[in-house]
Structures are given as structure tokens and as C-alpha cells.
Amino acid sequence: MNVQTSGQEPAPLTRELILTAPEQDYMNEAQLAFFRNLLLELHESTLVRIREAKQQMMRSFDASDDGDRAAWEEQSSLALRIADREQKLLPKIKQALERIHDEEFGYCLESGVPIGIPRLLARPTAEYCAEVKAIKEMKEHHYKG
Known about the structure:
It is a single chain. The chain is mainly alpha-helical. It has a single domain (25-144), classed as Four Helix Bundle (Hemerythrin (Met), subunit A). The chain is built from five helices and no strands. It has helices spanning 15-20, 29-58, 66-101, 117-122, 130-144. The chain starts with 14 loop residues before the first helix and ends with a helix.
């Protein structure tokens, strides 16, 4: 669904346009460009959140009150968990960008079926369609015990 005006570049896709695009437009050049930009923005915002979490942890705190110290330690622990989680997202973003480059983005790595625009908008790093992901999660839960 490329909206084009008299010989100019197609208008960039929005979330609304991509959700209403016809099925035959799935992962066309415009949609791949949309998701490439979305992933690049996600990468940048993730780096910012990691920096902010690290700065939070590096702030010195000197208080004699046990309650204040406990609150500061809890905030630092939370910042560490956030930084760790965000750090794990970066390779997933890079892998998704590679799949865009290889024109494999948007298709389930296991079944090859389309992952779907709504799922990709919610989780642009998705590698599996909802059905395959649900089965994988059930197996993980079952084997964890």
C-alpha cells in the first residue's frame, strides 16, 4: 500500500497504514523499511535505557538511615536487572536487522509462515509465529519442572 504522489518517493508507512495494508503487501520493500526504522529506533532507545541504568547504579549514596540505604539498594538492584534485560535485547535487534537484510524478516524461523503485522508491531524482534512460540513456551515450562 504505497501512497505515491506524482513521481515522488512513496509516503513512509505508519502503524495504521501497515495494519490496513493488503495481504499481498506483506514484507514488501516499504514494510521492510518501516520495520528497519522501528528496529533502529528500538536499538537507540535500548542503548539510552542501558546508559541510564548504569548511571543510576554508579551514583554514590551516603546515608546513615537504614531505610534510605535499603531503598537505594533496591533501586540499584532494579537498575541492574533493567540493564541486564536490555543488554540481552541488543543481539535480538541485530538479528532481526540481519533478517531484514536477508529478506527473511516477518516469517517464522521454524514453520516459514508469516508472523503477522500485529505481532511484529508488538515485538519487532519476534522470530516465531504465535503458534510455534506457544508450543516452545509450553515445552520450556514442561521441562523446567
